[in-house]
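Batch manifest, entry 17 of 40.
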Amino acid sequence: MEEPPERWARSCSPQRRYDMLTTNIVESMNSVLLEARELPILRMMDFIQVKLQHWFYERRNKAEGTFYDVSCWVEEELKNRIDLAFTLNVFPVDSWRSRVEEEGITFLVDLNKRTCDCFQFQLDELPCIHAIAAIEKRNIKKSDFCSHWYLKESWLKTYERQIHPVGHTDSWIVPESVKSQIVKPPDFKVPPGRRQKKRHIPATEPSKITFKCGRCRRIGHNRTTCIYSPALHPFSRKHREE
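Output type: structure tokens
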């Protein structure tokens, strides 16, 4: 409650946000480079180069092989929304605007401005269920109302370049200005103790650790805070009698 709404509400954010938010691109690579970080620096760079080369080649082929006007994720998302859009009542106002009713609530959809009273059309820049209902009423292509970032052409441009291997060191052409430079190791003091390999989990991030009580065998608490009766041992006499 102490934070302003623009920090946690998408509708109040001054910048454009989408449904997938990441804190840092480096955190997304941590799991991929978990084993490669133990290698020497040159071997780790080779691992990153091979991994990016594989990703670009695989996703470029996937983009070229799709028959949709939008990406596969967007097409699947629109299909899921179509099932809900068929249950709505659409009342056209003019050639672009429509009044869509959902469970007694009326939403005004403007396909020309790409807006809807639910604001999901504006935030996601994808047709919401109300916009899809209005689009289906007019038999128009839904991909025409998606942002150009979701189109197949944008998907192809993302992976149009190739990641080339660096080759052997003997084939490198290094300028003399670079060869003459003396690179010293960083002035870094190694702290005592075992080096940390896992990142610190902030208090605001939900924990994935599941606690199981050793007294009642229930999940969500431990033996210290247990308020239930102890679980019966499967080989106890009372358990066999029941």
